[in-house]
Amino acid sequence: MPDQTSPYTGRFAPSPSGPLHFGSLVAALASFLDARKSGGRWLIRIDDIDPPREMPGAGDLILHTLEQHGLTWDGDVLWQSSRSEAYLAHLEELTQLGLIYPCSCTRQHIKAMGGIYNGQCRQGAENKAELALRLKLYDLPGSLTSLPHQVRFIDSIQGEQVQDLALEVGDAVVRRKDGLFGYQLAVVLDDLHQGVTHIVRGADLLPVTARQIRFFEILHKSIPAYSHVPVAAINGLKLSKQNHAPALNNADATINIWRALVFLRQNPPQELQRTSLTTLLTWAQTHWDKEVLKGAGQILPLTPS
Q1: What is the pLDDT of residues 259-282, one digit of tens each?
Q2: One fold for both 9-81+198-301 and 84-184?
Q3: 232 known ligand binder
Q4: Is residue 201 marked as binding?
Q5: Is 105 flagged in the annotation as binding?
Q6: Pair type for strands 41-46 and 9-12
């Protein structure tokens, strides 16, 4: 049982674009074990704010797979699709602060800028027909003028990280031209809503972390502690739904968890492959040590079983 007085709240937030695969299991397991080893809470959020990319029923399928693999969560599942009013209210507040502006730039425009949005529409969008909304991340007004272009943070696994928001990122889209809310807006507001203090996730999300940290700074909120575990890859390609990673077989839950522990360099004993899932997870919680991942890099090859 989680310690209700623990200052640790973690979360796993998959998008329902397909069933859970091994790469996702690695991220979920690392997040779960880090929370449980700390006596903290572990929450589940389904990031269902992009219907065109979602697979019908995938959210429920993911939840079922997590349960079958013994990764039980605390409290109710939060579905991002239920949070539209909250996102809209925050957008209005940010607009009043002079931090939101309409943008008509297309992907072709951004490609012509060298791939990094250069703030072209900060002085006014040319095309009024199709407009996205962007959040200023640098050169901010009012009390935020002291925030530098660079964001520096220490990732507990990947070490010190530095990103120049003006040169490497550009202002973030917080509402798309099709009216859907942007990921960077939703993820930060939901982490605040759920009281998330520690984020353990795949290193493929490391590049977006600085802009999320800047969002916390803009809102004058505490920044979570970040840990980005290596992502699994085959032939240099990250295991992902886009790369047709196979769905997990729930009948092999114990083996799947054991293999994920091996990938995470936890060195589970061979005999635990033949034990119960409960016994394996109990061992994993007791022995969880993310320090062994330091220096492992952001991508690790998946050794065939």
Answers
A1: 999 999 999 999 999 999 999 999
A2: yes
A3: no
A4: yes
A5: yes
A6: parallel
Question: Tokens standing for 46?
Answer: 């389904």
Within 8 A by CB and 6+ apart from 178, the residues are none
Question: Which residue is associated with the tokens 């002085």?
Answer: 123
CA distance 186 to 25: 23
For the 9-81+198-301 domain, the top CATH level (class) is alpha beta
13 is in an annotated binding site: yes
117 marked ligand binding residue: yes
SS3 162: strand
pLDDT tens for 134-187 read 999 999 999 999 999 999 999 999 999 999 999 999 999 999 999 999 999 999
Domain over 84-184 is classified CATH 3.40.50.620: yes
How far does the chain reach from its first CA to its final CA, in angstroms? 32
Radius of gyration for the chain, computed over Cα atoms and rounded to the nearest angstrom: 20
Run of H or E including 87: helix 84-96
Question: Domain spans of the chain?
Answer: 9-81+198-301, 84-184
274 appears as a binding residue in the annotation: no
Q: Which residues pair with 238 in a beta bridge?
A: 233
Instruction: For residues 100 and 133, give the distance between their C-alpha atoms in angstroms, rounded to a whole number.
Output: 6
Annotated ligand binding at 268? The verdict is no
Residue 148, annotated ligand binder? no
Q: Is 290 annotated as a binding residue?
A: no
